[in-house]
Amino acid sequence: MDDIIREGNPTLREVAADVEFPLSDENIILGEKMLNFLRNSQDEVTAEKMGLRAGVGIAAPQLDVSRKIIAVLVPNAEEIEENEKGEEIVIPPKEAYSLATVMYNPRVVSHSVQDAALAEGEGCLSVDRDIPGYVIRHARATIEYFDKEGNKKKIKLKGYNAIVVQHEIDHINGIMFFDRINSKNPFATTEGMLLLD
Ligand SMILES: [Zn+2]
């Protein structure tokens, strides 16, 4: 999984092919590998050992496989509280992840008029430079996809999860995050746009 292709590689600009059901073993294993990669990348010890950059999402085209498969793994934040002695204690979240899944043939089927962007901008495992600016996305989106058993799923997303999934769905359509930054004014906002921390 150190074979992530970088911007400039034409695969990242292709519209990826739909996968067919029932899924081939190859496509099931690829999805599992992608999710595993994200898990490893978020584990400090493993990431350092393997030289991985932490990621919350990855799309098959980033592995030079032009198929509509994405994996997302968005951890919930830990909470910090103070005990009676005034010491900070870390409280792990009840659920480790707010989103942890492999999606086959995902697409946005409806979305809010309202836009949203991450205040800090976006990064990408296929882009080795900082590109400042607001990446303008839908604040809320309904996503349809298939799970590995071939069941059709529909989920409504908002906030950070909505941003992550839209970033990955863009990859299977040949779109890079910087395409969505206003080139003349990178920090321009649209009416009512949400800025997410
Ligand atoms: Zn990316």
From TrEMBL:
Any Pfam family: Pep_deformylase
Q: Which GO molecular function terms does the record list?
A: metal ion binding; peptide deformylase activity
Its EC number is 3.5.1.88
Q: What does the UniProt cofactor note say?
A: Binds 1 Fe(2+) ion.
Q: Which keywords accompany this UniProt record?
A: Hydrolase, Iron, Metal-binding, Protein biosynthesis
Q: Which cofactor does it need?
A: Fe(2+)
Which annotated residues bind Fe cation?
Answer: 124, 167, 171
- For whether the record's keyword set contains Transcription regulation, the answer is no
Q: Where is the active site?
A: 168
Choose any GO biological process term that the UniProt entry carries and state it: translation
Tell me what reaction this enzyme catalyses.
N-terminal N-formyl-L-methionyl-[peptide] + H2O = N-terminal L-methionyl-[peptide] + formate
InterPro entries of this UniProt entry? Peptide_deformylase, Peptide_deformylase_sf
Which domain of life does the UniProt lineage start with?
Bacteria
Family membership noted in the UniProt record: Belongs to the polypeptide deformylase family.
HAMAP family tied to this protein? Pep_deformylase (MF_00163)
What the protein does? Removes the formyl group from the N-terminal Met of newly synthesized proteins. Requires at least a dipeptide for an efficient rate of reaction. N-terminal L-methionine is a prerequisite for activity but the enzyme has broad specificity at other positions.
- This chain's protein is named Peptide deformylase
Give the organism the record lists.
Floricoccus tropicus
